[in-house]
Write a structure and sequence with these properties.
Shape: globular
Distance between the termini: 99 Å
Strand order of the largest sheet: 1-2-3
Radius of gyration: 26 Å
Length: about 350
Amino acid sequence: MSVYKDARSPYWQFDFQVGGHRFYGSTKCTTRREAEAVERSERENAQRYVAQTRAATTSLRLDDVAGGYWQEVAQHFAAARNTERRLGLLITFFSEDRLITDITHDDACAMVAWRRGHRTRDGERIAPATVNLLTAQLKTLFRRLRSRVRFEHEPEWRKLWLPVRQEHPRELVGDEAERLEAVMRDDYAPLFAFAMASGLRQSECLLRWSEVDWGAGEIRKTGKGGRLITKAITPTFREILWPLRGHHPEMVFTYIAVRTHRGWVKGRRYPITLAGLRAHWHRLRKRSGVTGFRFHDFRHDFATKALRVTRNLKLVQRMLNHADIKHTLRYAHVLDSEVADAFEQVAESRKKSRTKLRKVG
């Protein structure tokens, strides 16, 4: 067995090679027997990885190409689940045995039409931007093969993109915040308070205690595009997070099971998952009567209010962890009044200049 004890760690380590690839790491186990079981599991995973990678480099089957992309790249994305789902949609539509070189522009058009017919959980048609994400996923698979494959029927990508309506940032207005708070469960309230105070994306709000460094006074988390997000633990964050210590050893935000069902025991705490959060948010909107407001709009609400207070686009860019300030510019409408004031200041300065010229003449 390729397991060994490292004096620098209380855990057994594994280190082995499969097909010329080296695999190593911690088993997170303190006994040899448990470590050997983990090593066997890791070796099986490694063999599957090598087999899929080899298949992807020689096979043009959509399932093999998608599998290789997943193993080599996509599984490490911050939004890996979304990528996995889109790959699954491609295989569902085209079939796993379809050769990627046989996919034509007409096939891609049919895929777009098929995806446009899907609906959200609320029964609404999915947005054009969501359809475009599936098209972009297919294009990515084509792009990865261009160095070794000549495509004679590659889709005309520019003709496949659906027009996307410019998104207008949505704020909580009037009594909407109070209406949401009035019907919110107490165990979910800290997570929503954190989302509103941090401006983080939905998946980024599901914190682990390992990402909260009380000593350094900082939250460090991997966000969209693998970018590191750092947030100082302000008094507001501390007030939200500190009382949650001890509820769960790994996850920060938890809920209390209201009934015993499928392994859940009534009264016990369990980590809030992304699926659970989405289901709760769906019920919360329905009960509160707040319409046209998505969970992601908490981020828009945060950004709009931050820009209104700071009047500083660069600062808000950093607060939102935007890689490019052009993404922050969508909130620039908040500064319209400031622009109007500047126009007035320029007009006033010109009036004064003309007055001085008349006096000199």
